[in-house]
Amino acid sequence: MLAAAWDYLLAHPQQFAKAFAMHVALSAAALALATAIAFPLGVAAARRPALALAAVSVANLGRTLPSLAVLALVMPLLGTGFAPSLFALTLLALPPLLLNTIVGLQGVDPDVVDAARGMGMTPRTILRRIELPLALPVMFAGLRTAAVQVISGAVLAAFIGGGGLGDFITAGIAMMAWPQILVGAIPVTLLALAADFLFGRLQRRLTPVGLRAA
Amino acid sequence: MIALEGLTKRFPGASAPAVDALSLDIGAGEICVLIGPSGCGKTTTMRMINRMIEPDAGRIAIDGRDVTAADPVLLRRSIGYVIQQVGLFPHLTIAENVATVPVLLGWPAARVARRVDELLARVDMPPERYRDRYPRELSGGQKQRVGVARALAADPPVMLMDEPFGALDPLTRAALQDEFLRLLHELGKTIVFVTHDIDEALKMGTRIALLRAGRVVQYARPETLLAQPADAFVGEFVGADRALKRLALLRVADHATPGRARADAPAVGSGASLREALAALLAADADVAAVVDAAGSSASTISLAAIRAAAVAPRRAEA
Q1: Per-residue pLDDT for A63 more than 90?
Q2: Cα(B217)–Cα(B50) distance, rounded to whole angstroms?
Q3: pLDDT single digits (tens) B19-45
Q4: How far is B276 from chain A (nearest CA, A)?
């Protein structure tokens, strides 16, 4: 069956390249957009207990929502194609990013922040030089989770015409063509694993030396 | 050097003010110890001096300058700040931690590096060995050494210390107390020192302010606090053994009388405390001991009666 999948791939190189590129573009764009939203929101919420609680609750609720349900809800509003797929995937990536930004910042030792303030650091300096470096490993763990979720979730974009590797899977299911399903499923799995590995390496890289396990 | 006038702070939701019209004068080069039971307002008072907590009413003057109107961020850079949990920045090296305030003040890099090495040496942390280490590699006592070095970095005339030795084991605590007492006097710093440990207060304090419910109950030198407690609360706070504690603060040389002791009398050093002299007398079952100076010769004696007199009455009235 793997051989059949390989033959199918060789028979449709352009189609595969296009779907692969679309899948990566869609995932990367969703991650970038979600980070751009979650980072400032998380930083703002971490300092305000009420806002943080609200953000964490909504984010947790968002995590329980199945991705397919999000797509189903989005379609009537935004129609089909790239934009609604991007919107749905961004929504999928937001909870882990937002949660980890808030939890990471709230996890910074209050005595360290007190000492920084007592020595005359401004709130902005404290955020930039103390809180963010210390929260970075936790925040990056959120990005790693979000990346895996978005790459696997992007398969569903095919349902609303967003393209990507999901096209092979949906078409394969419709025709009960196993090789075609695998041409979509295997690269998605590899892509998700690669992202997990890459972001894991980056996360260790970005952990300040003083915090790394001895 | 530091004048607190009518300082008041009431926290939202609290029935009584945490600090209630508190006034205190702290002389240059003094170590003023704020002590009292939990919730007496000692930490709040200290934190109002560098405006970590804003007072509701009252005035704070440092060196004659009213700081109640100053920019709190700039004010804090001119006041050393040491807390019990130390609060070293775990992601920065020891050198970077110590350099915090000089860097905030924009010192050139070469001057910062020189100052960091000088301070690490001062607190007995050889710079070539510790400069590039990280806080998690240090013991509790070493962390607080770095904490004090960090607070001293920009040579502030005033230091605030909130139970700086509170988290250390008794041996390390005693060693650091001795060491920093010497260092801080040497540098001539004016210090506000918060503790709940009366022995630490008696040891470190030039003067001790005993607080209760946000007010100063008594503000006096350690000897006076022990000899003449202002009321029953102070007496109870300093402890039933305050006579003994007082003896530990008094020097033999100040209570000796000229003369020669019998040949079999015990000997005590002139620099010893009366408490040590008492222990020597009790151990030898004697009434009089010979007082020996550094050169080993004796021209005076100390008697049980003299020790008793010193324990109950102050030699001279001090406030």
Answers
A1: no
A2: 23
A3: 999 999 999 999 999 999 998 999 999
A4: 40
DSSP string of B197-231, one letter each residue: -HHHHHHH-SEEEEEETTEEEEEE-HHHHHHS-SS
Tokens representing residue B205 in the block: 């304090």
Site of tokens 């449709």:
A12
CB contact under 8 A, A117 and B76: yes
- Kindly list the residues from chain A whose CB atom is less than 8 angstroms away from the CB atom of residue B91: 133-134, 208-211
Secondary structure in 3-state letters for A62-86: HHHCCHHHHHHHHHHHHCCCHHHHH
Q: B interface mutation test: which of A108, A109, A119, A132 has the most B CBs within 10 A?
A: A119
Give the tens place of pLDDT for each residue, A11-27. 888 999 999 999 999 99
pTM: 0.83
Q: Is A118 on the interface with B (CB under 8 A)?
A: yes
**In chain A, where the domains are located:** 2-209
Considering the domain delimited by A2-209, tell me its CATH architecture: Orthogonal Bundle (1.10)
**Which residues in chain B have Cβ-Cβ distances shorter than 8 Å to A111?**
83, 85-87
Question: SS3 for B31?
Answer: strand
